[in-house]
Write a structure and sequence with these properties.
about 180 residues, alpha/beta, UDP N-Acetylglucosamine Acyltransferase, domain 1, 7-stranded mixed β-sheet, 20 strands, Sugar O-acetyltransferase, acyltransferase, repeat
């Protein structure tokens, strides 16, 4: 017999979960309070995040779901208006630069309409390597891995993994051969 798992445990495992769960709603509210302080200049960056490396900068306004699933390396830069839906781990490597308005979406939804109707959600981790440059307005979808030294063009929608050293652009993002 399988032990009972809380909705939070299901979420962190990337399984289907109910986002309306009271524990998750409390944590979302706590994160919203922290973000309100941070985005008005009254908060501390590392207070809520899973890890923050040295010399890392997140320019407000910044938005995330929980914060504790976001792990930032050293010398990471996120420009204005970045959104990270961190229902599962999102890892960003050392020296990565992320342009304004970028969305990193680890939150996902079932493809089956009957499961969506039940308001179930899930998540797939996103990993962004070292020394990556992500142009403004790009969208990184759930489950994506971006290799070290890659470049993602502004406005791109990343639907597939990006190889180390590759440059991709477009919707969907495709490799550019420069």
């Amino acid at each position: 017999m399988m032990p009972h798992r809380s909705e939070k445990q299901k979420m962190l495992a990337g399984k289907l979960y109910m986002a309306s769960d009271p524990e998750l709603q409390r944590e979302l509210a706590q994160c919203a309070e922290w973000l309100a302080r941070y985005n008005t200049g009254d908060g501390s960056l590392p207070e809520r995040l899973g890890a923050v490396g040295e010399n890392t900068c997140i320019r407000p306004p910044f938005h995330c779901d929980y914060g504790y699933n976001l792990f930032l390396g050293n010398n990471v830069f996120l420009n204005f208006n970045c959104i990270v839906l961190d229902v599962v781990p999102v890892r960003i490597g050392d020296g990565t630069q992320i342009g304004p308005g970028v969305q990193i979406l680890a939150a996902d939804h079932p493809r089956a309409p009957e499961l969506r109707q039940k308001m179930l959600e899930s998540g797939r981790s996103v990993t962004i390597g070292r020394n990556v440059w992500i142009g403004g307005g790009a969208i990184i979808l759930p489950g994506i891995t971006v290799g070290d030294h890659a470049i993602i063009g502004a406005g791109s929608v990343v639907t597939q993994n990006v190889a180390a050293g590759a440059t991709v652009a477009g919707n969907p993002a495709r490799p550019l051969h420069l």
